[in-house]
Structures are given as structure tokens and as C-alpha cells.
């Protein structure tokens, strides 16, 4: 087997990277609030992997010592969550990754992230006073990107715009704001040119694909993640990363999976549809899961969640 982690190792947050900017005032949660990390962030929060990804996107060489990682702590759906950005050569790149959730609102979220990023950047440099001087204060140029690897069919690349979220059309005689976000589909068969330039991104995509494959074989999603990780380690796919972060990855993906199941079962407003009501009635009568799946069209995971 690939690892044997204790509970502390499964849940602890990784804060060892010397290139990571941490703002104690804004990034330290209360003891009762756990900050969630994503697998994508864990992989690309190292300067080496961030430099590889930046080079693949920009088409120019980048070395790890040019990367300065910035963690942006946000509250989404009532949960504290760490998102990833980094500064390199006067540019601030904000990264977003979604496994399966809709991402049409990413421009609005990036707008919110950007204010936090600049506030943290200026504060950490101790240069707040220069904002009120007569000389123009220079800030890193913002850049945005989203990587999509959900199961819904989406194009290889598309562009989201902040202005699409505006209630009324902008008045171009006055000042207005636009923010464009390219979305790259990193499922298999998509954006092969980027994969060639960033092996880590391709291996990440392969790992998530393997998780989905093993999820078809095992009713327990945690076991599916573990088996997928075992397979990837044996086949040289993110081997070192999975050995080091294995327990945390199982915890993260299982938590995300539970949230997605909850959304599908109950809906955003926890409304029950007819299939859920039928499934609950059949569960009360101790009917086999396979029979409930056939009668309702719900997946095994959804029915297990209802139990």
C-alpha cells in the first residue's frame, strides 16, 4: 500500500514553503474553523511546479526562484478556503481549479480575490503609505486562469467575462471595469500542447481521471481515491507528491465528493425531488441498493448518502 498516515497527518495544513507569503492577521482562522485546501493548490503551491505551469501558459522560461507564492484565504459557501496566486516578473497570476462545479461566476470571484491579493501584497511590503503619495505606485499586473476537469462536456478553451455578470450594459462614457478569464479544459484529449509543456498538469489530470475510473469499481469513494493513488504511484504519475500528501489528498477529495453528492441529492435549497422521496421510502423498507438505483436513476453514491 502507498501510505499509512495517522489522523493528525491527514488533517494538518502544509505551511513549510519558504516562498509562501503568510499574513498572520488575515490568514489565521479561529481554532474552531478549519481552512480547506484543494489538491490542485497543494500540487502547484511549490515554486518548482508553479514555475513549470507558468512557463507552459506564457511560453517563456521561468525559474522557481522567480516565483513568490501567495495564499488567498476566502470564505466560500460558509467555509474558509485557500486559493492560490503567485507573483513573477511583475505579474500576479491568480489560479482557479474546479473539479465539477459550474464556473461561470469565476470572474466575480476573481475580482474579490484581486482586492485581497493587492491588499496583502502592499501590506507585506510595508508600502501602504505610497498609495497616498503623488508618485504613481506600481502594482503587479493581474492575470487569471481556470483549469476545468469536470465531467460535463465543455470546449477545449473558452473565455469568461466579468461584464457578462453586470445587470445593465456599461456606459463607456464613464469608467468601467472588465476582467477576462480563460478556461482550459484539462480532461484527457484536451489542450495537449499545454500538457507537453507542463508534465505535472498532465499527471494531475491523469490522477483525477483514475479516481473517476476507480470510483466506478468501489462503492466507498475514499477507497477509490486510495486505489487510484496506488495505481498512479506504481505507474510514475505524481508518485512523490502522492506519497508525501496521500492522507491529505484522500481527506480533501472525499470532503469535496460529499459536498457534490449533497448538492445533487438535496439541491441548493435542500428541496427534495420525487426520486429522492422514492429512494428514502425504499430505504426505510430495506430494499437493496441495486433495486433502488434501477427504480430511481440515482447513483450508488447518492443512495449511500441518503442512508
Kindly estimate the percentage of residues that lie in beta strands according to DSSP.
Answer: 15-25%
SSE series: HEHHHEEEHEEEHHHHHHH
Report the structural category: alpha/beta
Radius of gyration (Å): 21 Å
User: What is the global morphology?
Assistant: globular
List the strand order in the largest sheet. 1-2-3-4-5-7-6
What distance lies between the first and last C-alpha atoms, to the nearest angstrom?
A: 30 Å
Share in helix: 40-55%
Give the number of DSSP strands: 7
Mean pLDDT: 81
Number of helices: 12
Protein architecture, described:
The protein is of the alpha/beta class. The protein has a domain of 191 residues. α7 crosses α8, α9 crosses α12 and α10 packs antiparallel against α11. The chain is globular and about 75 Å long.
Features:
single chain, 307 residues, alpha/beta, seven-stranded mixed sheet, 7 strands, 16% strand, disordered N terminus
Short description:
With 307 residues, the chain is α/β, with parallel strands linked by helices. It has helices at residues 7-11, 24-27, 39-44, 47-58, 106-125, 192-197, 199-215, 221-234, 239-266, 274-284, 289-296, 300-306, and strands at residues 20-21, 68-76, 79-88, 91-98, 141-148, 157-161, 180-185.
Strand and helix map with partners:
Elements: H1 7-11, E1 20-21, H2 24-27, H3 39-44, H4 47-58, E2 68-76, E3 79-88, E4 91-98, H5 106-125, E5 141-148, E6 157-161, E7 180-185, H6 192-197, H7 199-215, H8 221-234, H9 239-266, H10 274-284, H11 289-296, H12 300-306
Parallel strand pairs: 1-2, 4-5, 5-7
Antiparallel strand pairs: 2-3, 3-4, 6-7
Helix pairs in contact: 7-8, 8-9, 9-12, 10-11
Amino acid at each position: 500500500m502507498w501510505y499509512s498516515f495517522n489522523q493528525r497527518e491527514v488533517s494538518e495544513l502544509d505551511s513549510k514553503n519558504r516562498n509562501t507569503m503568510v499574513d498572520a492577521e488575515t490568514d489565521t482562522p479561529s481554532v474552531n474553523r478549519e481552512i480547506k485546501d484543494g489538491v490542485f493548490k497543494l500540487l502547484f503551491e511549490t515554486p518548482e511546479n508553479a514555475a513549470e505551469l507558468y512557463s507552459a501558459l506564457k511560453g517563456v522560461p521561468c525559474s522557481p526562484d522567480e516565483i513568490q507564492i501567495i495564499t488567498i484565504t476566502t470564505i466560500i459557501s460558509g467555509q474558509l478556503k485557500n486559493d492560490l496566486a503567485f507573483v513573477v516578473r511583475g505579474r500576479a497570476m491568480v489560479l482557479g481549479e474546479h473539479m465539477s462545479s459550474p464556473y461561470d461566476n469565476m470572474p466575480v470571484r476573481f475580482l474579490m480575490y484581486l482586492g485581497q491579493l493587492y491588499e496583502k501584497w502592499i501590506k507585506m511590503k510595508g508600502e501602504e503609505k505610497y498609495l497616498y503619495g503623488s508618485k504613481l505606485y506600481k502594482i503587479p499586473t493581474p492575470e487569471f486562469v481556470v483549469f476545468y476537469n469536470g465531467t460535463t462536456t465543455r470546449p477545449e478553451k473558452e473565455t469568461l467575462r466579468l461584464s457578462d455578470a453586470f445587470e445593465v450594459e456599461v456606459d463607456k462614457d464613464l469608467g468601467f471595469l472588465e476582467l477576462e478569464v480563460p478556461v482550459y479544459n484539462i480532461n484527457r484529449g484536451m489542450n495537449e500542447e499545454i500538457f507537453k509543456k507542463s508534465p505535472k498538469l498532465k499527471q494531475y489530470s491523469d490522477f483525477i481521471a483514475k479516481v473517476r475510473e476507480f470510483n466506478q469499481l468501489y462503492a466507498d469513494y475514499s477507497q477509490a481515491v486510495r486505489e487510484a493513488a496506488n495505481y498512479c504511484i506504481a505507474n510514475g504519475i505524481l508518485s512523490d507528491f502522492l506519497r508525501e500528501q496521500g492522507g491529505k489528498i484522500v481527506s480533501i477529495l472525499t470532503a469535496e465528493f460529499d459536498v457534490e453528492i449533497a448538492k445533487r441529492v438535496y439541491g441548493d435549497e435542500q428541496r427534495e425531488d420525487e426520486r429522492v422521496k422514492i429512494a428514502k421510502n425504499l430505504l426505510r423498507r430495506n430494499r437493496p441498493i441495486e433495486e433502488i438505483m434501477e427504480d430511481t436513476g440515482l447513483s450508488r453514491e447518492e443512495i449511500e448518502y441518503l442512508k
